[in-house]
Design brief:
The protein has five helices and eight strands, in the order H-H-E-H-E-E-E-E-E-E-E-H-H. The protein has 172 residues and is α+β, with helices and mostly antiparallel strands. The chain has two domains: 103 residues, Penicillin-binding protein 1b fold (2-Layer Sandwich), CATH 3.30.2060; 47 residues. The strands form two sheets. Strands 2-3-4-5-6-7 form a six-stranded mixed β-sheet, with helices on one face. The chain has a two-stranded antiparallel ribbon with strand order 1-8. A hairpin with a 2-residue loop joins strand 5 and strand 6. The chain is elongated, with a radius of gyration of 21 Å. The two termini are 25 Å apart.
């Protein structure tokens, strides 16, 4: 939907459930085309940023696997197709749509758009700003608790918040 111009989106569900920013989501889409300069490692790094999980054994939605110069992606929005990206050096050689059950070639693609694995995704810049703001607010609250002799509460708050911040940095 986000690749077309003739779409109207009603965002009531997003408002109720606080889904991520549609602009951020659209900006994080990976656009792939044959002949494009992109290394296999760049693609793998970008997939991880989009919350895809590398799993060479259990290949299901929101996962990808790597075999030599081939990266296979099971898109978040698909149940019946995987995207196979073949590289020649640091260039995309071919993009194919594959049946995940039979491995049968369904189509050769001129373009593939890989969307984030989750709607709850933010850009690296927004994450850094949010973490800085959380850290600033944490220091304020810790100072308050310490000034009022609530050392146990300060310790618990700091421990839990620092853990959550670390998880946000590592996992997203």
């Amino acid at each position: 939907l986000s690749e077309r111009r003739d779409v109207i989106i009603v965002a009531s569900v997003s408002c109720i459930y606080s889904l991520g920013d549609p602009i951020d989501y659209r900006n994080m889409v990976i656009s792939l085309r044959p002949g494009m300069e992109k290394s296999r490692d760049e693609l793998v790094k970008k997939l991880v940023e989009l919350q895809y999980e590398r799993n060479d054994v259990s290949f299901t939605r929101n996962k990808f696997r790597v075999r030599g110069d081939v990266v296979e992606i099971f898109p978040a929005a698909s149940n019946d197709s995987i995207i196979r990206v073949e590289f020649f050096g640091d260039e995309i050689d071919r993009i194919s749509e594959i049946n995940p059950l039979t491995g049968e070639l369904k189509a050769i693609l001129k373009h593939a758009a890989i969307y984030p694995a989750s709607h709850y995704i933010v850009s690296g810049d927004k994450m850094k700003k949010a973490l800085a703001e959380i850290d600033r607010e944490l220091e304020e609250r810790l100072a308050y608790f310490r000034e009022n002799g609530k050392l146990l509460e300060a310790q618990r708050l700091e421990q839990r918040t620092r853990y959550d911040m670390e998880m946000l940095q590592e996992i997203g």
